[in-house]
Sequence to fold (171 residues):
Amino acid sequence: MRRLPRIVRAIASIRYHASTRALLGMCLAPAVARAQLHHPNLSGTWVMNAAKSRLEVPVPDSTIFVIHHDEPIVRIFRTHATGGTLDTVTVVLRTDSSEADWALRGTKLTGRSWWVGDELVFWTGFADRDRPGSQVVRYSVSADGKTFTAVERVDTPEVKHVNRWVFDRRE
Fold:
């Protein structure tokens, strides 16, 4: 049996290794995609740190967020305390960017949430007394998991403000 010329053997070797790499790439692609889709877990009880927060609204006496995060669902229970009065809101977010209609104190809202890197973005559109408005909140957790931040932007014809709420994890 005659041996193939060296150049033919080299080309066959390249094709073999290239196809092996392609096959390996196809097999690993789902794992790489899942790794890229990993997002921080926002779960925890978070207590407002007024000294670190920058608010353009009256500062409540205290604010607590309790978050249950089970991807793709994030349940947020927020309570402000001001002058002995509690104001509690519960929001259920879907992180797949699907639209959800809901109501808050008689105002009809439409909301969506999605991930941008390690931040969960929550958009809400509304028409209060036929005046359109929107709110965008960007939620994030510090690398050490001890600080939760909510950067909130409200935009209506009468009100425009940006608040940076900073919370410490309650142990």
